[in-house]
Amino acid sequence: MTRLFNDPAAFADEALEGFVAAHRRWVRPAPGGVVRAAARVPGQVAVVIGGGSGHYPAFSGLVGQGLAHGAAVGNVFASPSARQVRQVARAAEAGGGVLLTFGNYAGDVLHFGQAAEQLRADGVNVRVLPVTDDVSSAAPEEAHKRRGVAGDLVVFKVAGAAAERGLPLDEVTRLAALANDRTRSFGVALGGCTLPGAGEPLFTVEPGRLALGLGIHGEPGMGERDVPSADETARLLVDTLLAELPAGVEAPAGQRAAVILNGLGAVKYEELFVVYRQVSRLLAAAGVEVVDPEVGELVTSFDMAGVSLTLCWLTDELEPLWTAPADAPAYRKGAVTAPVATGDEPSTAPVDTTDDTPLVADEDGRRAARRALAALAAVRATVDAHADELGRIDAVAGDGDHGIGMRRGSHAAHEAAADAVARGAGAATTLDLAAAAWADRAGGTSGALWGVILGSVGSALGDTGRPTPATVASGVTAASTGVMRLGKAEVGDKTMVDALVPFADTLTRAVAAGAPLADAWDAAATAAEAAAAGTAELLPRMGRARPHAEKSLGTPDAGAHSLALITRAIQQTLATKEVD
Amino acid sequence: MTRLFNDPAAFADEALEGFVAAHRRWVRPAPGGVVRAAARVPGQVAVVIGGGSGHYPAFSGLVGQGLAHGAAVGNVFASPSARQVRQVARAAEAGGGVLLTFGNYAGDVLHFGQAAEQLRADGVNVRVLPVTDDVSSAAPEEAHKRRGVAGDLVVFKVAGAAAERGLPLDEVTRLAALANDRTRSFGVALGGCTLPGAGEPLFTVEPGRLALGLGIHGEPGMGERDVPSADETARLLVDTLLAELPAGVEAPAGQRAAVILNGLGAVKYEELFVVYRQVSRLLAAAGVEVVDPEVGELVTSFDMAGVSLTLCWLTDELEPLWTAPADAPAYRKGAVTAPVATGDEPSTAPVDTTDDTPLVADEDGRRAARRALAALAAVRATVDAHADELGRIDAVAGDGDHGIGMRRGSHAAHEAAADAVARGAGAATTLDLAAAAWADRAGGTSGALWGVILGSVGSALGDTGRPTPATVASGVTAASTGVMRLGKAEVGDKTMVDALVPFADTLTRAVAAGAPLADAWDAAATAAEAAAAGTAELLPRMGRARPHAEKSLGTPDAGAHSLALITRAIQQTLATKEVD
């Protein structure tokens, strides 16, 4: 378990501060994360990585010469926000453009994707590459849906070495994508992990059992068996990876491969070496030539007990990038030459992302903003009341941070909205600011989606004029469409979308039939509740199914459930006398 | 707990094999451990380190340019044998002499000390430096009795960098000793560890409690308290070390210090960073300038949960040695230049330590050898029967490996003696070979001491002529003297000596009084049993007492207890009809 902390809510920020204090030779803080301490090299592509905290050395430990240029650092097990990614990328980029690369988790995909849009708007050339090496998280024909685990390191290393050579952005991206296409990982777990301050483990594995393909946040894997010997574990890992060779590799014999045997946290070095002894023998027996193997802790999950094996089937292009020197806090290889100082030190001042457009609200718009603020207060209260429950539900299939993220987001949104209302803002501005605050403070998937919801509703309401029930319904419909697009989910995938779509449809139909807003919202909230409950019905499809469909294990989807709770809480503010 | 292994008895050997397979760039196997893969530099001092397995990256992970030249690798938590140390030193030395440096544990002191004697006999110039940084293991006025923990790294690093500069052996030794004198560590533990295959933890810390100064094998510390916050933990560590400055450092302000915040295994990186954040602030507030801090796992103890802080108060001489480049499997810093290849690759063939002196035994000597073999069979049987009990007793105050070590040693001794008897050897040769086998296979303190006992008795018996009871008694007395000298222990220290001395005295007196050997031995065994039971009587004196006196916690000393068991088992072979 995680034992040493102060305020658990401050854990990730304090860990980052201590990490920087210990590694000033390599990194310096940037808003949202860290960038290299060394001067930027003008024209060089910046490789910007990132993800949640709790996986050290991923991601901050991999910033340095020959590796990443910057890392956006999210809260514990939560993606950094788009704003964080944008800030780190702006501090790292040196005129050659930015490659954003990260593990393929919904929250990271959302926030890095939004950051890419923002950076393009800033005039920065950007490419996006999610890492998808975990073979147990989706079938080969849906490899693009796979999660990223220790294969992150291979992709980051290849990208960093390519950037160090001065290659252009498209070429760096091509090589990194080639590395990703040829990298496969498979992991097993013997025990779960406990987050700082948590009373019980986020997830567990029964003593004496081995969970196959269990994700680094406890995402369901492919099954269980009794704990095997170290040699049998090695065979399981090697056999699984040799059974799925990438396109163009017809047989293992004669291939050269980068190999990572990764400890998840509680499996210690000597155990890893005992396993690696047999991995090395089995690969040799299969005719695979191992190049610069890494045996240690490269992607961890606090005190999770587990081990994963990663193979990258090298090509003549990839091998020199894998073996090139690197000098990062947690990854050092060969001799690096100190970079030429340019005097162009990365800025540590935040990029100004505040919107200073003058407020244009009228009295109707300000009244609508006050009602929105009252609704956000109700949202905050219901999230507070249900935060533990949301965390528990999320822990069944996800990473258990849903309650924490929703609290951070709803509090930040309410605070931003209160400020906006105090300054006389209209509904659109108030909800836009609330949306940005929610997304930035919450991070994770839910943060990005609630940002979209608030922003969409705000845009429909506008800053002037009196919103009609139809305006509200159109905003909710826009939110529903936006969430489906950004979350890449459809009805039936057992996500928030399962509740949001019927909510929007019911609201729209009731409003069109002439119902007052409070009544229409009531009916819609009831539909959302029924649909959220329905996300619990599907039986789990372990391993080889669509990731979304794997989620349900008799408990509802956490995102759908919180949407239902929130729509009900808002309905109660609509049913009361109008706030003024 | 440790979960991934094959045969637990093979764990250390298999881990070493896997370690070497993963790090061929840096190390190659040598009999008894590892040496650098790079060619030796003629005339350079060889820094040879070592200790038990289970503490990675100590010790094999610290072999490489700028650090150690070789590491002798013992069994789990057991020192390597003198033979191992000698073999590694012979493979590493390049004409400049050898510095043997290691943590100050009884077993290591014995075996490295014996190896030094053997190396001198081989014509190698040798210096010996035990590391003594753990302030909780003895009072400042007995600093030479302190254990070595993460301060090992500082001493090894300084020695390695000094050797790399081409300094002579005395100068390398002087600088390493200076580093040791100025290095202090203090650790706290939140949980114990479980050895490979063990059914229960070797030692534990009650949940929610923090053990102050608990050793990395569970050696008793200075007390307990409730688990504090990370910031309070940092203050405890810093305050303890600032309270005991080395000679010549009058105040922390204005000093420069190498700093290591070490995780013992289950305390993970982010937690270490949260603690380091406050360590860094407190040191800055005290006016200490931190130089090249290390925050990570440098000396571990499997899955032990704990953290230690090490400060080395640098001088102008020490600082450049601490900051010099190094390139080892688990410690890399700065850019190292590849060494000049000399074609002088270290030999991986064992140094020939077999004795091919022709056998000179007569029939009396061979008969005595057969009786010695019968006694060794009884020893083996009683050790097998009591191995679990011995481990449990040892775990109270020691590292719990006594049962394992005694088994390995007694089996090896019996096997070697059987070979010798089959070849027609006399008692002296038989017991000498048995002594060497016991010490080499068992490692640890008990291995060295039983080597002395068997060797002493064998020398007294000789290879020719019929041994008298007086000869046997004189051998036992020599054994008793030898153990006191080598173990640096006296009667009352609650060690094996407490039982061995009355055994030898009683035997000598009874034999002098004309008793037959079987009767005299019976009386002596009874005396040993009473004395062994007496080692349980002293109350524990935590922390600041003599290390030996700390050991007793209501259970007898494991070494004294096993001596009593063994003398009784031998008595029964004497009481039966003579073997022939």
Automatic annotation (TrEMBL), chains A, B:
GO terms (BP aspect): glycerol catabolic process; phosphate-containing compound metabolic process
Annotated signal peptide: none
GO CC terms, sorted: cytosol
Superkingdom of origin: Bacteria
Annotated DhaK domain residues: 7-331
Classification via NCBIfam families: PRK14479.1
Record's protein name: Dihydroxyacetone kinase family protein
